[in-house]
Amino acid sequence: MSLELKKIDKAGVAHALDKAERYRLLNDPAQAESICLDVLAVDPSNQQALRALILSLTDQFGDGGAAFATAARARVRELADEHERAYYTGIVFERETRAYLARKNVVRSAAYDGFRHAMEHYERAEAVEQLRVDAILRWNSCARTIEREKLGPAAREPELPLE
User: What is the pTM of this model?
Assistant: First the structure.
């Protein structure tokens, strides 16, 4: 049996977005994700809904990572603003790396690389952000985690001399 989804009225978008934020704060990202999808069904370019959806997807990285990361990255590309695309790409990398680091027996150099990728995107966001605060705060958070967890790049293999 196929269920056809019902559409919300455009007049209810602001209310729905408030609800999505509440569900994120209640640690129910799947419900927030569903609400954001309902908003985007009636207002496909709603930037607030896209941002909330991206964050809702990243909130679920511990539950199944790869599929949520792919979906979040696809939604980041829909953001209209260059700063936001860089910033939210950094968020996806950072949260994906934090979820990875929380697992047991991880390759610590991979976590380092993940945080460095996030930091590169935060630097891009910082370059185009007028206030320059959010990207700096996130960059510093990644740097502190790298230091606290004593993460580093993978050891390089020594180069063998050519004959």
Answer: 0.90
